[in-house]
């Protein structure tokens, strides 16, 4: 083929049409041709999804992405592929994605729609950046704002929660989330080999974690006295494999955690404040309202920067006593 007066060989007859197609699209992307031209007769959307999932799986193996993230991509891209996976990338338009997420039979809320669109946009953006396709056809597609997890349990609700738990396995998990502010998925992966000791356990250091690609360092979960005592006991009970096991002796899964918290809500008549992540948010909010610096809370919570934790400030309005204390402590000039 000829591009801008220069001839390029795509493939010999023995090499087949697949190599010719790949070389054609590589040249189109390298020359920066228009999207309609560079994507014409190219990969189908489902092919892009498969390539993206394979790359994400490799990144999981390198510790740059979590298995939970990959599972979410698989869930949404599998559904999207059924709707518009056979389209050529050149024919994909934002309305295809909008029609898919807004289908009445799905009954997805704002957060689920946000995550679904994020998965599809991530796949197409990656393919464009990797030179698999030309311009990203979904670059201008907007996502709905996800619904924030606003519910934070009170101290009384936490006490009720712990009082209703009869087995030590689930109680250990709940107390560690409450005392460390760690992500539930981090704690259920932790092993004895991950524990940092200075006479007693002081932290859990995870090499593979959610922000590994951004921070390029282990995620350290620091332990208070109660958490350290729990971890020390679990190290003796489970010297190999996950420290936290359910009462059947199996590793915790996200679904198993969700089911246990669902039973707690049913038993206590609670709402979304009776969830694993609500306990993590309570830990963050307690530290912020107690005066711990924002940067310190962000580091302890395992965030790459202060952006996510700063959003928790919007929840402090629910704690009038904190605002009253702050107002009383604020010195202002007396202008009469």
UniProtKB/TrEMBL annotation:
* GO terms of biological process kind: DNA integration; DNA recombination
- Sorted alphabetically, which InterPro entries does this protein's record hold? DNA_brk_join_enz, Integrase-like_cat_sf, Integrase_catalytic, Integrase_recombinase_N, Tyrosine_recombinase_XerCD
Its recorded name reads Tyrosine recombinase XerD
Q: Give the keywords, sorted.
A: DNA recombination, DNA-binding
Membrane spanning segments where? none
**What Gene3D superfamilies has UniProt attached to this entry?**
1.10.150.130, Intergrase catalytic core (1.10.443.10)
Point out the coiled-coil segments of this chain: none
Q: Which PROSITE patterns match?
A: TYR_RECOMBINASE
Query: What gene does this protein come from?
Result: xerD_3
Q: Could you give a GO molecular-function term held by this entry?
A: DNA binding
Record domain Tyr recombinase: where: 147-328
What would be one Pfam family of this protein?
Phage_integrase
């Amino acid at each position: 083929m000829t591009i801008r007066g220069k001839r390029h060989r795509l493939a010999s007859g023995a090499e087949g049409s697949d190599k010719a197609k790949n070389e054609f699209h590589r040249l189109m992307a390298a020359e920066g041709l228009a999207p309609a031209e560079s994507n014409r007769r190219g990969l189908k959307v489902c092919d892009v999804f498969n390539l993206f999932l394979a790359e994400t799986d490799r990144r999981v193996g390198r510790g740059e992405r979590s298995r939970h993230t990959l599972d979410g991509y698989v869930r949404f891209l599998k559904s999207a592929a059924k709707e518009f996976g056979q389209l050529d990338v050149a024919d994909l338009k934002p309305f295809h994605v909008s029609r898919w997420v807004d289908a009445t039979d799905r009954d997805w809320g704002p957060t689920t729609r946000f995550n679904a669109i994020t998965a599809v946009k991530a796949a197409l953006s990656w393919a464009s950046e990797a030179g698999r396709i030309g311009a990203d056809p979904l670059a201008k597609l907007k996502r709905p704002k996800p619904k924030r997890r606003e519910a934070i349990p009170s101290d009384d609700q936490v006490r009720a929660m712990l009082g209703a738990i009869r087995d030590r396995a689930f109680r250990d998990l709940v107390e560690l989330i409450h005392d460390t502010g760690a992500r539930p998925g981090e704690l259920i992966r932790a092993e004895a080999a991950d524990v940092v000791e200075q006479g007693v356990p002081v932290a859990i250091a995870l090499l593979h974690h959610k922000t590994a690609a951004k921070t390029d360092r282990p995620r350290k979960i620091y332990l208070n006295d109660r958490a350290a005592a729990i971890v020390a006991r679990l190290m003796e009970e489970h010297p190999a494999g996950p420290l936290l096991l359910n009462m059947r002796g199996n590793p915790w899964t996200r679904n198993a955690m969700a089911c246990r918290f669902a039973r707690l809500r049913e038993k206590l008549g609670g709402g979304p404040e009776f969830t694993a992540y609500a306990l993590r948010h309570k830990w963050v909010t307690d530290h912020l309202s107690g005066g711990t610096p924002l940067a310190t809370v962000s580091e302890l919570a395992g965030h790459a920067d202060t952006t996510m934790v700063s959003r928790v400030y919007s929840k402090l309005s629910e704690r009038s006593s904190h605002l009253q204390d702050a107002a009383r402590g604020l010195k202002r000039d007396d202008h009469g």
